[in-house]
């Protein structure tokens, strides 16, 4: 039979274990950034390349800027329940992190494709129109259209919209272009264009020429824009993703109405590229 002293010791031990368990539960990290803070703020981890200037830039001090990210900072001001934290990764890794819920959205000039729409959700509002041009070595003659690239090697980043556009055109015309695929940063592609290892690439001229200027790579955009497409922020297709998407959409609506979205576009590109007619 337990003595009163021993019974008291057992009871104290049980209370201690229960107290520690409660503390552990209170201090455990939330499984989702959508858990929110005490003030109702939702912390959203945003995947972005950080190397796709002028849209996504990670500075040497670890801070982030670029048009796509500055738009989100503006959204945060008009939707104070959102707090964005940016995380840089390679292109393919952006979607891997989104799938694993390490990030809850991606900001990287992303257009819609059938494959993406089957798996993810997008903002209802676009925040920019991205054009694509042929990019060649500076001074190249005789190339201004895709027809001029028949029989040549053209580089493209695996999985991006510009490469998909090139693939679709190529297939529709009997595959006259040899496409060389790159998984590295886009810098490698434009360097190979400048070195003559490939004849051209197809990409956003703002991104290509910005990178070329900063790294002194002699390339240029030629011909008329091949197309213009709206770009969106992309999210996981679940309840959390829809909640964050709706809040971001509300913010984008406010930025369009108060003119701030147009101001940001003019600041970064010298013109308002938020409407298709501007391209």
Order of helices and strands: HEEEEHEHEHEEEHEHEHEHH
For the record, the CATH class of the largest domain is Alpha Beta
The CATH H-level superfamily of the largest domain is Periplasmic binding protein-like II
Gross morphology: globular
Domain Solute-binding protein family 3/N-terminal: 43-272
Keywords: Signal
Signal peptide: 1-28
Protein name: Amino acid ABC transporter substrate-binding protein
Descriptive notes:
This protein has 279 residues and is α/β, with parallel strands linked by helices. It has two domains: 33-129 and 231-278, D-Maltodextrin-Binding Protein, domain 2 (3-Layer(aba) Sandwich); 131-228, Periplasmic binding protein-like II (D-Maltodextrin-Binding Protein, domain 2). It has nine helices and twelve strands. The protein has helices spanning 4-27, 67-78, 91-99, 114-119, 161-172, 186-195, 205-215, 239-258, 260-269, and strands spanning 42-48, 51-52, 56-58, 64-65, 82-88, 105-110, 120-122, 128-137, 153-157, 178-182, 200-203, 219-236. Strands 1, 5, 6, 7, 8, 9, 10, 11 and 12 form a nine-stranded mixed beta sheet that branches. The protein has a three-stranded antiparallel beta sheet with strand order 2-3-4, with helices on one face. Strand 9, helix 5 and strand 10 form a beta-alpha-beta unit. Helix 2 crosses helix 8. The termini are far apart. Residues 43-272 form the Solute-binding protein family 3/N-terminal domain. Keywords: Signal. This is Amino acid ABC transporter substrate-binding protein.
């Amino acid at each position: 039979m337990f003595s009163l002293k021993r019974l008291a010791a057992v009871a104290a031990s049980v209370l201690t274990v229960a107290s520690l368990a409660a503390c552990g539960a209170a201090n455990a990290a939330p499984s989702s950034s959508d858990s929110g803070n005490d003030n109702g703020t939702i912390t959203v981890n945003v995947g972005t390349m950080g190397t796709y200037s002028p849209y996504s830039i990670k500075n040497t001090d670890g801070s982030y800027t670029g048009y796509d990210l500055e738009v989100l900072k503006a959204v945060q001001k008009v939707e104070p329940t959102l707090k964005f934290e940016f995380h840089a990764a390679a292109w393919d890794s952006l979607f891997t992190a989104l799938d694993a819920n390490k990030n809850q959205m991606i900001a990287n000039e992303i257009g819609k494709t059938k494959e993406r729409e089957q798996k993810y959700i997008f903002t209802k509002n676009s925040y920019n129109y991205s054009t694509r041009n042929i990019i060649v070595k500076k001074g190249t003659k005789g190339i201004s259209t895709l027809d001029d690239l028949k029989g040549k090697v053209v580089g493209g980043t695996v999985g991006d919209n510009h490469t998909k556009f090139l693939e679709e055109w190529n297939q529709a015309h009997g595959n006259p272009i040899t496409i060389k695929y790159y998984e590295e940063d886009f810098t490698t592609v434009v360097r190979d264009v400048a070195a003559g290892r490939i004849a051209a690439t197809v990409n956003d001229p703002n991104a290509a020429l910005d990178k070329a200027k900063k790294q002194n790579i002699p390339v240029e955009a030629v011909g008329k824009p091949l197309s213009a497409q709206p770009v969106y922020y992309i999210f996981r297709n679940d309840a959390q993703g829809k909640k964050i998407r709706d809040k971001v959409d509300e913010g984008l609506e406010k930025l369009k109405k108060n003119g701030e979205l147009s101001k940001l576009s003019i600041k970064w590109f010298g013109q308002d590229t938020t409407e298709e007619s501007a391209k």
